[in-house]
Specification:
By secondary structure, the protein is an all-alpha fold. The protein has one domain (2-94). Helix content is 95%, strand content 0%. It has two helices and no strands. It has helices at 2-59, 63-94. The two termini are 44 Å apart.
Amino acid sequence: MDEMGSSPSASTMNSERKHKTSSSWLSRLKKNCLTFAVSCRESFSYVKAFFIGQAKKIRAKNEKEATAADLDTAKMQVEAADAAEKTKNRLNKSL
């Protein structure tokens, strides 16, 4: 009689364990996909900043404007990295 009473609870525990495993696996997959998307956006922002900076450098009429274009490029890249880091931290806290 004891075996019959413990059998359903064992199967219930097994199904709960499988559910937890699958949900944690899906959670990790979702987190990794979102992190990858943020990294792709950051990379795109870096490339965008590079080409905008190069265009400004080409159009520069003097050394001062060329230096300002370099600084703007660096500033845009830092802003992209900061935004990506902030988003990744928010994802880590929420998931």
